[in-house]
Amino acid sequence: MSIWEFANPVRFMRFSGKLLPYFSVSAALLIVTGLIWGFFFTPEADQFGSTVKIIYIHVPTAMLAINAWVMMFVASLIWLIRRHHVSALAAKAAAPIGAVMTVVAILTGAIWGQPMWGTYWAWDPRLTSFLVLFIFYLGYMALWTAIEEEDKAADLTSVLAMVGTVFAVLSRYAVNFWNQGLHQGASLSLDKEEHVADVYYLPLLVAIGGFVLLFIALLLLRTRTEIRNRRIRALQAREAR
Amino acid sequence: MSPTLALLARELRLSLRSGGGAGLGLAFFLIVVLLVPFGVGPVPSLLAQIAPGTLWVAALLATLLSLDRLFQADFEDGTLDILTLSPMPLEGLVAIKAFAHWLTTGLPLIVAAPVLALTLNLPDPAFFWLVTSLAAGTPALNFLGAIGASLTVGIRRGGLLLSLLVLPLYIPTLIFGASAVSAAADGADPMPAFLLLAGITLFTLALTPFAAAAALRMHMR
Question: Contact A171/B172, CB-based, under 8 Å?
Answer without folding.
Answer: yes
